[in-house]
Every structure is written in C-alpha cells, then in structure tokens.
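>> received
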Amino acid sequence: MYAYGPVPSRRLGNSIGVSPIPAKVCSYSCIYCQLGRTSTLQAKRQRFFPKEDIFRDIEKVVASSSADVITFAGDGEPTLCSDLGWLIRKSKQEFGLPVAVITNGSLLFNEDVQADLLTADIILPTLDAGNPDIFRRINRSHGSITFDNMTKGLAAFRKQYNGQLWLEVMLIKDVNDTDEQLILLRDTVMEIQTDKVFVMTPIRPPAEKWVECSDPDRIKAAEQMLLNAVTVADVEIGDFGVLEFASAAEAILEIFARHPLRLEQARAIEQKFAEPGIVENLVQDNKIVINRYRQTDYIQPLKPKMGTEQIEIAVNRANCCTYQVTLRSKNQERQYRVILADAYYDNLARGLMSKEQVLEYCFQYFVNNGLLDRLEAKFVLRDICRQYPEFEKGIKEMIANGESRYYV
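>> returned
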C-alpha cells in the first residue's frame, strides 16, 4: 500500500500520505527519527515501484476520503524515488488538491530533484544544523552528502521555486539548542530565504534513546532567533482515515509503519472497526510493543535484530586492501565488503595487530553501539571514520583496551 489516510497533520491539516519508497530507505539516519534507524542508507535515486501502481493507490484513497492536501513523505526520503516528479504532476492534474513534499532536503543539490519538486505547492525540507559537525551528529547522512552541498542545494532551489518553502528545525536538548548553534542556524536560514520556519521537538519516541526535547526557554529562544519561527510541539489531533483497510489490525500495522501511533489512537481505530482487544492480540503475536515516552504510551513495531547472544565476526581477505566481513548470530547473518588501506590501518593500530584483527575490533564497536544500520554493504573504513570522527575514537579506545566481546 503506497497511499494511506487521510492522517491528521500538525502543519497541513488532513493529509493523504504517499510513500513511494520502501520502508526506511533514506539518505539520513537521524538520531531523532520517529521511525527508528535507517535500514538502507543511500543517496542514489531509483524506481522502487511501478509509478502507475503508486498512482492507482493514490486514486483509490482520494476517491474514498476528504483531504486538504496530498503529501509525499513515507517512511524514508521520498526524493530518492526517481518517479516523484511524474507522480506530483499527475496528482495535481487529476485531483485538484495541493501537493506537499516532506523531505530532508539532502538531495536538492541535484538538478533532477529540483526539477521534480518545482510543480509541488509546498515543500517542507529539514534543517537541523548550522555547521558540519552538528549536521553529522544529528542527521548522520550518506557519505556523499555534505553540509555544504545540502545547504547550497536548498538555497539554489529557493531561487527558482515559486511555491511555499517551509523549513523544519528539530530542536534537540544540548545538541543544537545553544545560543551559538541557534545563531549558526539563523544565518543558514537567512541564506535560504524560507517562507516559514517550524521549530519541532521530538515528541514521539526517537531513534536514539538519549535524544531529549529542548527546555521551554531554549524553544522560546529558537522562536525568536530563527526569524520569528513557529513552534509545533503539540500532538496531532484528528482521526485517521481507515476505509481502505480490511480490519483494525491491518489499519494499525499499516499506519504506524509510516506514522507513530499513540495508544489512544490505536484504541480509536479498534472502535471504528468494532474490534476491541486488537492491540493486545498484536502484542501477544510479537508484532508490536507498547512503549512509554514523555508520559504517553505509543505502539511501535517489534523489529527483528541480531540477537543478544554472542555474535560471531568473521573477516576474510578478498584482495590486497578489501575484506569480506560476515556477522552471524543465531537467527541472522549480515555481510559487508570493507576497504582498509595500509595508511589507515597504520593510523588505527600502528602494526600492533593484523588488518583482520583491526576489522574485528571495528565491527565490535559498530555492533556494541548499534551502528550496523548506518553501514552500507560496501564502504571504505577511512571514509566513514572521517565522516563520523567519533567512530575512529571509539575503535582506537577498544583496540587500546583490548576489549573482545561482541554483543548487540
């Protein structure tokens, strides 16, 4: 199912959502993401599904509901869909509804992405940082995306775009809410010349448990410094459209895959289908869990992951500087192809151990810190450690301390 809703939006009213990409395919893996860590980190655009199938799904939902806007968003980065421009134009032509795109803005330096978005009525890109260090810490982007090309892309798009450009800033306590960081953000916002700025806070369970909402005084400071921004900190109010679903269970599972549900919202869906107890059944079937975040209960997917038992890490040389790394647990296996050049090997271990042992320590660090979802199937170790300097620091500490147990 590609189209769903309408769903209540805090900025757009009743919105028909469209997800033209698979689950958790994104160019970022933001620390605050309400849908969890990115499963596939990529920056290359492609056709994931037949565009005609996506459009037919939109057509069905529009015909059976009343909505204010059609919103391309989904559970990842919608501009990765190479058919997005066609879908936007076709939707505007056929339905007469305004079209919005919620995007992280990471690919707007690509001319084809700019061209695809020009016909949309509202574009809502993300901007969470005013400098490269905070950008890397918060958004954890694909290696090909830099802070510089992301911000230049936003500014270039603004110059040719005649619709509404509404920037969204996710404010995170002690990360990007200091006066210094807000000044940097303000300067970047001024370069982009956006129509609106929304200050958001992570009101739903974030990808990383340590992420916290900023204090009220910091939110107020952001409002004042970011060109009279508007804070959107309240939960959304309104009913979810469920007519396209056959049962309460299907509706709950499909909706929360793209839009986190409060327990009270799931109960309301049960009532619409006159199917009480569905939430409890889904919990018993290990399809969902109920987590409490900021005094509110949310239902979330029980995601498969490498078990808490010891993980076997096998490293085999493919050629001079390329290695095949295999991670095995009781129920899962993952494989990576890693390039480790001699110079970077010396930087990490200075001849204290073999390259194979160095890579074992590297993957031990990735496993222990829950970072596997941020790795591509093939990567250069030096490049990812330069992108995230904390990786190199952590790996060197593990090598120095001789740690050797592999757990998730």
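>> Residues 147-160 form the longest helix (14 residues).
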